[in-house]
Amino acid sequence: MTDAWTQHGKVRAREEAGLLEITVDGLTTQAKYYKPLIYEFFRKAWRGSRPVWGDFSVEIAMEYVGEAPWLDLDNLAKALLDAIKGYAFHDDAQVARLLVERRPGERERILIRVTRMA
């Protein structure tokens, strides 16, 4: 994986060999906050590859510092999948594997890894 990140505001992303990584700095308990934020990043800054058909694996991690925020992970996953739809894949029905977790981290952020499955 290269260290060539594209960044716009709180969102940054990079891709290489069928893997797309997206990081969003900061946390909020409002999952709907992330959809326009990530959508704007892809619309204004992203110059990566076009979406393709096929199955994908998506891993989403919400990293927090201190006490875990009260946030429904299913709502977070839906908002994030909607935000990357049309950029990482054509439709979120292409997601064959989905892992969503909340874990302690060194800083508050959302991590998304999208991998094309063989």
Please characterize this protein's 3D structure.
The chain has 118 residues and is α+β, with helices and mostly antiparallel strands. It has one domain (8-116): Holliday junction resolvase RusA (60s Ribosomal Protein L30, Chain: A). 19% of the residues lie in helices and 36% in strands. The protein contains two helices and six strands. It has helices at 34-44, 73-84; strands at residues 6-8, 11-16, 19-25, 56-64, 95-104, 109-116. Strands 1-2-3-6-4-5 form a six-stranded mixed sheet, covered by helices on one side. Strand 2 and strand 3 (19-25) form a beta hairpin. The longest helix has 12 residues, at 73-84. The model has no long low-confidence stretch (mean pLDDT 91).
Map the helices and strands.
Elements: E1 6-8, E2 11-16, E3 19-25, H1 34-44, E4 56-64, H2 73-84, E5 95-104, E6 109-116
Helix pairs in contact: 1-2
Brief overview:
With 118 residues, the protein is α+β, with helices and mostly antiparallel strands. Helices cover 19% and strands 36% of the residues.
Labels describing this entry:
globular, 2 helices, alpha+beta, about 120 residues, 6-stranded mixed sheet, 60s Ribosomal Protein L30, Chain: A
The percent range for helix content is: 10-25%
What is the CATH level 1 assignment? Alpha Beta
Order of helices and strands: EEEHEHEE
Strand order of the largest sheet: 1-2-3-6-4-5
Please summarize the sheet with the most strands.
Answer: 6 strands, mixed
The number of strands is 6
Could you state the CATH homologous superfamily? Holliday junction resolvase RusA
